[in-house]
Design goal:
Strands 1, 2, 3, 4 and 5 form a 5-stranded antiparallel sheet that branches. This protein is an alpha+beta fold.
């Protein structure tokens, strides 16, 4: 019997000038509610950002992105899904998120939490390479 592993992901975007709405993808955040799994990774390509934006502020970007990877979140009692929703909420700032995209992994047999986490990590790595690097 196969098992379905449902997940959601969104891209983190650097928008140097909000009015122009031009952006560079700088991170990926992914979550699975059922398996209480969430992961976020960042990649700041300074060369690409410099080529696109004259008025860049890399230090400000690093500071604002740190909220996505810190363990000391403002609301530590939030569930994985609540934390993902809070971080992925639409904002008008230099860091914005894409719409959340659903995904589905089919595992050939019932999975433990560790098996699910391994499958989700593998999918995350694949998406990160394809969408961010």
């Amino acid at each position: 019997m196969e098992e379905k592993i449902i997940y959601e992901y969104c891209l983190l975007r650097y928008v140097a000038d909000i009015e122009r709405e031009e952006f560079v993808n700088v991170g990926l955040m992914m979550m699975s509610k059922r398996y209480r799994w969430m992961r976020c990774e960042l990649h700041i390509d300074e060369e690409r950002i410099s080529a696109m934006f004259r008025n860049k502020d890399i230090e400000r970007l690093r500071l604002q992105l740190s909220v996505f990877t810190r363990n000391d979140v403002p609301f530590p009692d939030l569930t994985v899904e609540e934390r993902y929703r809070w971080l992925a909420a639409v904002k008008s700032a230099i860091i914005q998120t894409s719409p959340s995209h659903p995904g589905l992994l089919i595992h050939p047999s019932p999975v433990s939490r560790k098996d699910a986490a391994d499958a989700l990590d593998e999918k995350f790595n694949s998406l990160f390479r394809r969408l961010i690097l």
